[in-house]
Task: structure prediction
Amino acid sequence: MDVIGKWTGTIIFGKNYREHQNKALYFDLELTQNNEFITGKATDTGGIGVNPDPALINGKIVADKIQFIKQYESRHYFDNSGNVIIDKSKKGPEISYKGTYNAVDQTFYGNWKIVVKVKIFGIVPILIENGTGTWRMKRK
Result:
């Protein structure tokens, strides 16, 4: 399957995002492809949790299944008041996307997951954030 080109999509936040549950983040994505391997760049275009910096995409597509990692150039997160905080001194965590192509409506849809860990004393890893949700994208 050829996925080269421009795409537009929506991310829906899951239940662990409390007041942002079921709210959307909109994005544009441009993909290149070399056999089953895909790379690209994503840009948030609106909604909740927008990061002003782009994210890099690396993954693969096999038949109608797609999976990729998205990583923003800067870390962003919601503070306790629900505001988006941008930390340009760190890259964002890896966000894992898995999905399936629906030939009827010509969209990809699936689930995403983010796991953020830090190391105490540089040794002991602890989970500080675990987020999930759904996503959908179509050609632009």
About this structure: The longest strand covers residues 124-139. The chain has no helices and ten strands. The chain has one domain: 5-139.
